[in-house]
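cache lookup: miss for this entity combination. No prior model stored, computing from scratch. Input as submitted by user K.M.:
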Amino acid sequence: MNAEQISIFLENTPGRLVEVTRIFEAGGINIRALSLADTSDFGILRLIVNDNETAKRLLQEKGFTVRLTEVVAVEVADRPGGLHAILVALAAAGVNVEYMYAFVRQSGRNAVMIFRFDDTRKAESILRERGMRVIDGNDLAAM
Amino acid sequence: MIFNEEFETMPREALEAIQLRRLQATAARVYNTVPFYRRRFEEAGVSPDSIRTLADLQRLPFTTKADLRDNYPFGMFAVPMDSVTRIHASSGTTGKPTVVGYTARDVQTWAELMARSLMAAGARKDDIVHNAYGYGLFTGGLGVHYGAERLGASVIPISGGNTRRQVMIMKDFGPTILTCTPSYALHLAEVAHEMGVSFQELKFKAGIFGAEPWSETMRREIERTLNLKAMDIYGLSEVMGPGVAVECIEAQNGLHLFEDHFIAEIIHPKTGAPQPYGTPGELVFTSITKEAFPVIRYRTRDLSVLHPEPCRCGRTLARMGRIQGRSDDMLIIRGVNVFPSQIESVIMESGRFEPHYQLVVDRIGTLDQLTVRVEVNEAMFSDAIKNLQSIERELERTIRETLGVTTRVKLVEPKGIQRSEGKAVRVIDNRKL
């Protein structure tokens, strides 16, 4: 199973973000990583959580527009040059990064990068060829 | 079916003879009983005797909403208060409401015209009318109510609001006719959907929608989501209330004006010059049977067009076109005239958006900016900013190409636009002019 991210449409008004975290608190949803992309009008909150289906359902019940998106989670060595090695390989193959964000695990020496590529399949095969660890969706949720 | 064959299918010549007689009587009565009209007639140099043909109506002065406000509350009544059995008032958009009165006979006339309207829209004695127009000072609720009773149908006087309860009653009571504003009809559909109730399982066959301007595309949307035939109805409290004109279910093409009780004219909104049949302009009404609150050439500010040709339903009454907006809600954005209903059409035609929208007008520096707020939905949403922005830009482009006006489209969250329980607030004008 590929890694999935939950994407939420948010109007740029006070209190919308706190509504999301309130729903998660009440529903026992744990956030692994997040990124917020915004324009002057609206934002898209992108999240990696421990239970996508429940999170999606809880948000939809409260009227949020939500979508599950396939992303690629890659383990990156937590040292200088770790991310660079990945990006060099992808750039050489002509794969474009739409957006990315990261989190560092408490245990272990590696960071996890979440990528959204224009060509997910191609990116995955390149990463695997280079011996990089692409994290399975279930493993990601369980982290 | 036709409720009053005699008057609704009368040859126009005979109808015009009745109109003239009733107009002469009304003009004489207001001249003698309402000081405002006597003064206006005198200022215009006309007397009731000078009306010899229907064309002479054009010699009488106009009446405006400001005139009604100046005579607040009862100054325009043409009968003593002990003859008035009902008082209504229209929601005051500015300051005081407009107050209107009815005698017992006026209420009967209104009931008949509303019964005609219901029947034209397909209602019969054995129907159940779910009347979600507001009851109270607003004429919608009680107007439809009396008409439905006059027809002999069963009325559910549900009034507006408490939408979830309305859905439950629609499910349990099985009403067959729905009456409310078009925006509330869509709201009902949305709430029913949330509750897991499908209009396919309900028993509605027709709906009569009015009290706010709507479009053909909105009609199609209502007919599809509510699974019924949607008819447009027109009325305003100053003239009577709902039941001044209505579409027939046979043609759904223009609203039949009950001309044995009202004379309709179309004038140029700027110059006041009478316009021929088929030319759009402002609707003007003269009531010719009202006792308590007759109006002479009342300027509605509603923009429409008149067609005198008989309809295939058999009615010989002239038809008015769907209201194209109001001559006073017309927005002028950087010199371009725009009616909210036109933008609504573009939004609905695109097929991507929910039928809820809001226009916000701001003045930034010296430039007016029109923001169109529409709701995002699951189908168009993705994790990429650029996809959503391209949806916004595309609607902006379509509006610009269709209407020649530059707008800024802004996606908002689902239900981000306030749902009306009555008249929808479509335009927010923040300009300080």
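stored under new cache key. Chain A has two domains: 3-69, 72-135.
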